[in-house]
Amino acid sequence: MHKKYLIQLSLEQRQHLDTLVRSGTQAARTQIHARILLKADAGPDGPAWGDAAIADALEVSIPTIERVRKAFVTAGLDTALYRRRPHQPSRRRKLDGAQEARVVAVTCSTPPQGHERWTLTLLRERVIALDVVDDIARETLRRLLKKTSSNRG
């Protein structure tokens, strides 16, 4: 079967991968990907194994081999070997430090008339009324107060 992404390693890349595999200090995933690239190398010095033979020898799935091939050809050696790290956190924070301080200050103040203590619902309504935030979930307030080591006693 004709491969869409052919691996052709340079001598430097091949030496780098050999060193990486032989040292054994990298993550298992990185070592497996390096072995896949070495076995799939269709260059003049490479063995040019087929995907099924690589899958049997390294005990990985054929889609994994195809992903490693594609990553190497389209994005380079580092992308094929190492995990991609996110550039940004998965979620943006709802409150910054100043807003958190205002929420804690409201929590430490006296509760509304007719109430013995602050509930999360009362706190949420007061924080929105004071224009600290436009809208906030009770769970977000609960997490904020849980991580805060303030003691009202």
Topology diagram in text:
Layout: H1 11-23, H2 28-40, H3 51-58, H4 62-75, H5 77-81, H6 97-108, H7 120-129, H8 138-147
Helix pairs in contact: 1-2, 2-4, 7-8
Q: How would you characterize the overall build of this protein?
A:
By secondary structure, the chain is mainly α. The protein folds into two domains: 11-81; 97-147. The chain is 56% helix and 0% strand. The protein contains eight helices and no strands. It is rod-shaped, with a radius of gyration of 28 Å. The N and C termini lie far apart (74 Å).
Gap from first CA to last CA:
74 Å
- The value of Rg in angstroms is 28 Å
Low-pLDDT runs: none
Mean pLDDT: 91
Number of domains: 2
Compute the number of helices: 8
Helical percentage:
55-70%
Largest pleated sheet = none
Overall shape: it is: rod-shaped
DSSP, total strands: 0
Structural class: mainly alpha
Task: Write the H/E string, N to C.
Answer: HHHHHHHH
Fraction of residues in β-strands: under 5%
In short:
This protein is mostly helical. It is 56% helix and 0% strand.
Main traits of this protein?
2 domains, mainly alpha, 153 residues, rod-shaped
